[in-house]
Amino acid sequence: MAALRLALVATPAPLFAQPAAAPVPIIFVHGNGDHAGLWDNTIWRFESNGYPRERLFAVDLPHPLATSTVTAREANRSTPDDQAAALAAFVTRVLLRTGATKVALVGSSRGGLTIRHYVRFGGGAAHVSHVVTCGTPNHGVMALATMQPESEFNGLSPYLRRLNAGSEVVAGVRFLALRSDSLDKYAQPTGAALGAPAMSTGVDARSPVLAGAQNLVLPGTDHREVAFGAASFAAQYRFITGRAPRTTDIVPESTVVLDGMVSANAAGAPTNLPLAGAQVTVHALDPRTAQRTTAAVHRASTRDDGRWGPFRATPGASYEFEVVAPDSSVILHVYRTALPRSSTLVNFRLPAPAVRRGDSVSVLVTRPRGYLGVARDTVTFDDVPATGITPGVPSVDRALRWFPADAPRTVRTRLNGETIVVRTHPADRRRLVLAEFQHE
Q1: Structural domain of 284
Q2: Residues 147 and 293 reside in one and the same domain
Q3: The predicted structure's pLDDT at residue 440
Q4: Taking CA atoms, which of 2, 213, 282, 311 is between 20 and 30 Å from 71?
Q5: 260 and 365 part of one domain
Q6: Sign of the C-alpha dihedral computed for residues 274, 232, 140 and 183 taken in this order
Q7: pTM greater than 0.90
Q8: Are 361 and 261 in the same domain?
Q9: Cβ of 194: how many Cβ atoms within 10 Å?
Q10: Is the previous residue joined to 12 through a cis bond, with omega within 30 degrees of 0?
Q11: Which residues contact 48 (CB under 8 A, 6 or more apart)?
Q12: 241, 265, 293: which is the final residue of a domain?
């Protein structure tokens, strides 16, 4: 027995191989008014570095716009308690699904406040290993005793004073706070990016800093890029895994299956709640003209969960997603560049009915994962520069142009190096054409 025991101790490899520990599940939390679909680029980058798809999640928090005060009950809006409770429920579902004991939480803007609220006041510390806040106004968008004193975005409010009291981090949980050096519209010494240039906000670019956390500046990033851009991904990956990513590129897949949720607005505000009975039709396009090349390649009526897929896409192909409201009050035409990987986060929001201006129809360019800045970004419609992009700190995420409604036309939209060709539909006043730029 002694010889056997000695031999076993001296054996360089274990007698029975132990399975490698599964990576911690990561939950991505969107910001004020946003939705889970904004995290697709980040999730694809994690997957491109070998992180298991089944360990990556993004939550759609209901009624994502904040109430005017932290205790107000306002239709289709949410308090910090509302958001933290919804996040807690989602964390529980992820733990049950994965069998993990803890998760990592990554939050954009208000999402970081929601995470901190849950971890500090909602029992989340027992279930969370890592917290990453991205452009989160941890010390307020402003710190003014006379302006919205009960807002969760006021650094002098009782809410943020309580959240920051004592230690700004929670023992047993690792914290990383990402911020911009100067281009975050919600971390500025003046209110210029908020439409009040004469106002002194009482905060500056250091508002997202968390005392006791690892704090990292991402130079040149705007308020959304600090969460959804490549540099932010690299910082998130390094912090959670302990090593640098092999690549910050999104590596294409040979098989692409798409799905997502359709939701609607209520009284002008997003709900992030599933909309049943919406009609989603996918059309394959000639990428040069946006003309439909075949009959519809996918058609679905959303179920109670609002899901419109799955749809098996051809890698590299261009598609138009036509989304019709259940009451037919609006028809949305969404054009995106080819999606490189599978996703269950191809979400669509049905807006209020489209507006017509005389004999014109509109094409809307949006950049939901970043903002648009004069001189920094080039936005064109048929090679004509877009108007309405404010100078200074990037603070708008869309540009609109009106076109004559005499006939359908092809419009070539461009944002920096990315081009999306769309097609107008002037015969129906319910239609809105949207070019959604996927990459940064």
Answers
A1: 256-436
A2: no
A3: 56
A4: 213
A5: yes
A6: negative
A7: yes
A8: yes
A9: 16
A10: no
A11: 247, 249, 250, 251, 341
A12: 241
Number of domains observed in the structure of the chain? 2
Select from 211, 241, 271 the last residue of a domain: 241
Q: What is the pLDDT of residue 225?
A: 97
Determine which helix (DSSP H) or strand (DSSP E) holds 179, and give its type and residue range.
Answer: strand 174-180
Burial of 98 (0-12, 13-18, 19+ CB in 10 A): middle
Q: In this structure, are 217 and 284 located in the same domain? A: no
Does 219 share its domain with 324?
A: no
At 385, is the secondary structure helix, strand, or coil? strand
Assess if residue 209 is contained within a domain. Answer: yes
Q: Is the pLDDT of residue 170 over 90?
A: yes
Q: Which residue has the tokens 């003046």?
A: 190
Q: What are φ and ψ of residue 2, in 5° steps?
A: -65, -40
Residue 13 lies in a domain: no
Residues 6+ apart with CB under 8 A from 11: none
What is the distance between the alpha carbons of residues 113 and 84, in angstroms, rounded to a whole number? 9
Tokens of 190: 């003046």
Instruction: Look up the CATH number of the domain holding residue 36.
Output: 3.40.50.1820
Neighbours of 73 (CB within 10 A): 9
Residue with tokens 């107000």: 72
For the cut 90, the answer to whether the pLDDT of residue 19 exceeds it is no
Closest to 208 in 3D by CA, of 264, 257, 153: 153
237 and 268 in a single domain? The answer is no
Nearest to 275 by CA among 291, 256, 262: 262
Strands (E), 5-46: 26-29
Q: Residue 35 in contact with residue 347, Cβ under 8 Å?
A: yes
pLDDT, tens digit, 9 for 90 and up, residues 198-254: 899 999 999 999 999 999 999 999 999 999 999 999 999 999 999 999 999 999 999
Helix (H, G, I), strand (E, B) or coil at 383: coil
Contact between 207 and 139 (Cβ < 8 Å): yes
271 and 226 assigned to the same domain: no
